[in-house]
Amino acid sequence: EPFVADEYIERLAWRTPGGGSRGGEAFDPKRLLEEFVNHIQELQVMDERIQRKVEKLEQQCQKEAKEFAKKVQELQKSNQVAFQHFQELDEHISYVATKVCHLGDQLEGVNTPRQRAVEAQKLMKYFNEFLDGELKSDVFTNSEKIKEAADIIQKLHLIAQELPFDRLMDFCCYLLSFPGKYHDLECQLIQEFTGAQRRGEISRMREVAAVLLHFKGYSHCVDVYIKQCQEGAFLRNDIFEDAAILCQRVNKQVGEVFSNPETVLAKLIQNIFEVKLQSYVKDQLEEHRKSDAEQYLKNLYDLYTRTTNLSSKLMEFNLGTDKQTFLSKLIKSIFISYLENYIEVEIGYLKSRSAMILQRYYDSKNHQKRSIGTGGIQDLKERIRQRTNLPLGPSIDTHGETFLSQEVVVNLLQETKQAFERCHRLSDPSDLPKNAFRIFSMLVEFLCTEHIDYALETGLAGIPSSDSKNANLYFLDVVHQANTIFHLFDKQFNDHLMPLISSSPKLSECLQKKKDIIEQMEVKLDMGIDRTLNCMIGQMKHILAAEQKKTDFKPEDENNVLIQYTNACVKVCGYVRKQVEKIRNSMDGKNVDTVLMELGVRFHRLIYEHLQQYSYSCMGGMLAICDVAEYRKCAKDFKIALVLQLFDTLHALCNLLVVAPDNLKQVCSGEQLANLDKNILHSFVQLRVDYRSARLARHFS
């Protein structure tokens, strides 16, 4: 523990009797001083003793340091001597190694010609046996040494090829004495390879393949290997999966057997594509090519997709330098005859299928589709209708049928979606935008023109005139369904067509075509909505004309009016609320506010003009104010600020019908009426039955 002087003194005083540290003892300073003096003397003696011991240890340490330094110097000298000896030994070893290498080169220079001479002697010996016409050597008679015999035959064959023509003829004459030996040996080797493959002896297959590598029949050996690999490999219904499994298995084995595994594997794949797959594809497609376009296109898309997926799996294997081009050529060789006229088949099928879907729908409705004329008179009628908004021709009773079907639309979009998917997969990249545009044109023709546009035309023709009584207005249902359908059409345009044409000039063409068809539909929708609003206002006019009585606002008994608002007001407000709800359900977004604003403005104009037709007594004016208050409450359902403001102003105008003559000027200068034209104010004041009284005329002037 660290030494602390205060604690040491405290402990010493505590141990000393009379030190005053223990309770109950008297403090004795003399005794404590004496104890301190004695303890100091003991510490001095201890210090001297420890100092002598330290000096002795220092001397001993200095002596040992000198001895250690002397020993280190001696070891360094010994190390230098050992290093010199090592250098001498290294130089000697290098000298001996040089001599050995030189001697080895000399021996090799002597041995190589000797080995060649021995091999030449053996070949001459075997050549003599051929000349004699009798093969006696064990290498030719022992079937187990077929490898050595093949090597000899191959070398003799190469020698024959290097001889001049005249000597070659003599040599051939000698070989004819034992005809077909080269060919027979090839056949034996191939049979040996075949047997080893069936037995699964990889090492034996590798040995025989290495021997055959120098023979002409090596390619035949590869063909035999490929043929046997496929035996029993295609027993299931899925030929593509079988092919992938076979190639994966052969890929593991071919490197252990052949010196050029990538060439052998590529040849196997080529054989599978050109024989197995091509035959399978032809059987699947030719069956439906002329009789069933739908099944033909489905099979073509499925087979092409599965073939390309198989190609992607085969890309994992080593097939040489440009395996992508190799596999693409194989796929093209199978499908070229089917892809050349693919888009014509696609368009023909899509056209007939779409026409059938539409016709089946109209047949289910027992509807004979009317032909919408073009050119000449029809164009003139269309221009007149757009400018005047007049119904040209007789109104058609559609019995509430919109002639729009989401089921039909979904079927058309589904057929087109599948066509886009097939187009993306089966079209050449250079033809893809053009083909996609043709499919889009079919969709526009049958969905937009033949279905939506026809429904709009029929809906327009079914809108009754504005003066019809109890007219049923179904055009808003057409608007609602057309809006929903177009959202689906726009989604398919963005999801399936745009990726196919986004980087081509066809993009602007498609966008323009889409814009044109939208504008064409919007014109007809706007026209139909406008005429529908006119019909709504016409219905309100009929209600007001039938229900509103002149006595409503000028009752015979002013003191006996029990109603809060007139019956005409109740029926009009009920009718308006239904139409507002129908408009909200039929449209979305800003279109709702736009149409409701237009209806609200027309509704206000109708009520304003309607009120101007009557004279108002004091109690009748109060009833008119109640009616307008109810109309204003109905206007709140529009949730349009302008409409509510118009009815607030109308309500303020109606106050002029009941206000006291002395207060007319004050009311007219109020916040809501101050900005109105004085003629409007005057026109309302004139509706009072007491207007002609001199007092009222004087106050208003």
Automatic annotation (TrEMBL):
Signal peptide as annotated in the record: none
Statement: the UniProt record of this protein carries the keyword Cell membrane: no
Domain Exocyst complex component Sec10 N-terminal intervals: 29-137
Keywords: Coiled coil, Exocytosis, Transport
GO cellular component: exocyst
KW Transferase (keyword) present: no
Residue ranges that the Swiss-Prot or TrEMBL entry lists as coiled coil: 40-78
Record-level GO BP terms: exocytosis; Golgi to plasma membrane transport
Similarity comment: family membership: Belongs to the SEC10 family.
Protein name: Exocyst complex component 5
Organism: Pelecanoides urinatrix (Common diving petrel)
